[in-house]
Structures are given as structure tokens and as C-alpha cells.
Input
Amino acid sequence: MSNEQLFLEYKKNPTIELRNKIVEDNYYIAETLAKKFVNRGVEYDDLLQVASFAIIKAAERFNVEAGNKFSTFATPTIIGEIKKYFRDKAYTIRIPRRYYEAYPAIKRVYEELLNKHGKVPTAKDIAKEIKYSEEEVIEILESSKNFNILSINEELDDDGFTRSDVLGTAEKGYIDVENSEIYQKALDSLNAMERKLIKLRYEENLSQKEVAENLGVSQMYVSRLERKIYQRLKLVLSEE
Amino acid sequence: MDFEDNVITLNMPVKKEYSQILRLTTAGAFNQAGFDINTVGDAKVVVSEVFNCLLNTDIVQFDIAFSIAIGKVIMEFKTYDDDDVLRGANEFTRPLLEALVTKVEFNNKGKLILVVEAV
Output
């Protein structure tokens, strides 16, 4: 049965079996597109998995009667999902992890080759020794400039003036004042009974049972009141 | 940054071994325009795809020009004898290009113009 016939049949009879048959017959689309995005910090298997889900979605949505080929319809869907995956999972990683991890190996091979042959090796020489292409070796060496960490003890001039001398620090006192103001405002929103409960529970560290005895109420009441206070404080503090 | 003074043109032989030069130049151009690492990666996929199409033909030489501005790069592929740049395209090529760049333009002289613009 041709692809078109399969889709027409699936339209009449949308069973999982037919959908799976369509996906199997067109799986090369997912494989081809996933391969185009390798070497970008995400493993091929992960890309293929994303592409596989996308081709299932595309198969379910494709309208064969619109006259387009399935590959024309599925390609943007699959690429969209792969791009979304990169954006969501890999966006914050500015340097792909495998590049970061590869740098020490490249550096080691570089030094070995330099010592062995007495001349600076090329990217091709290094690539031959490890599992990266020439292009990747060049890119890793380029990106390595971005993962060197500066030392705060590095002297910036001859007088022993270090980087730490010019770094600011957070003044704890400001935070304490700010927190105490917010805390006071939150407590002011409670009535006398509620304030007393907070004082006994969190300043004197009494158990709910002990607080209940102290206030002459049941433990159940203390528990419920505490939950109510907690919700109110959360609201007041979130407004801050 | 103005396009006028920021155009890089390569005149390249259609040989597999030069795809690295094309990809690295593309990465440099997109990086210079301020694109994030994912868009730089997408741009490399795009130029590789076009280059693969050229490899499927008997075209021996082509020009590519990168016009660079902050947040925008225009890539213009042109062959000699006005051959269609995408003559060797497969079923994925056009939808792939359309999915990865902001705008795809063809002209009747075989020139392919790809525009990538920051959202």
C-alpha cells in the first residue's frame, strides 16, 4: 500500500495499528532530520526520540487530501520540536557539556603530540587521536576561552592589588533590617491569640501539644490555627 | 552596525573538504551578529544543507555572501552560469530551510537568499 493510500485508509479508520504502520514507513524522515542536529551538545538518541514523537504527531495531523507530500508536512513539525528541545533543555548550557569535557583531553593530546614531534600539532593531528572531528576540535579550542575561570586572588598590579579588592560584597546588615521590617509587618496582621501561638511555637520551641495546654485549647485547634496563620503569613510575605 | 560595510564574501569550490570552512565562517558571522549558540547551530545546519545540494550537482564553484548586522544575517548563495543553487535538493531541503531561517527567497537567476533575523 502506498503512503497516500495508507493515509486515506487511516483517515477512514484511525487505528493505532495503521498510524504505527505510517510512522514505521516514514521513520527515515525522523532519522534524517535528527542526524542534521548532532554535535550540538545533545546526544543523537535523544534527538531521535524527540523526532520520533514529532513524527507521530505529524502523522496524526496530516491531511492527505490537501495535496502535500507527508515529508513536506512533517519536516517543519519535527524541526520545530527539535528546536524546542534545544531551547528548553540546552539553552542555558552556553557551552555544550561534551565540549567542556573534551577540552582536558584535547589539551593532553596537544601536549603529547608537541613533545613527541617537537612541533605544534594541527587540529587534524589532534582529531586523529580522539573521537572528535577537526571542526569540533577547532570549536572546542575556541570555546575554551569562555570556560576559564578568573582567580579572585590574581594580582592586577605590582603592588599586590588583587581582583578581590575591587569586588563588592553584600552587606548583611541591610538584609537583616529589611527582613525584620517584613517580619514585623507580617506579625502585625495577626491577632493577639495568633501572635502568642507563633511566639510559643517558634520562639520558645514548644510542641503543638504544649502550646494547646498553655492556651487551654485542643491540639487540633492549635494545628488548624497554625495552618491558617501560615497561609496568612505566606500571603503577606508574598505581597512583599 | 550597517550591512553596507559588513559583507563577507567567499568564493568557494564545491568540494566536500571545504564544508568545514563554510560552517566555521557561518558560525563566526552569526556569532558576530549576536545570535545565541542555538541559532548559530541552526545556521550551520542550513549552510551544510545548501552545500550538500551543490555537492549533488556538477556545479564546481559558488559564491556566498554574509551581510551582517546586529540581530540579522543575510546569506546569498550564487552559482556561475545562473544555475539553480538548489538543483540538487532532496525532499527535505526546502521545508528544512523554511523551518530554520526567517525568510527564504529565490530569484530567477539561481540565486538563493536566506535571511535570519532575531525574534
Summary: The mean pLDDT of chain B is 90. Chain B has one domain: 7-117.
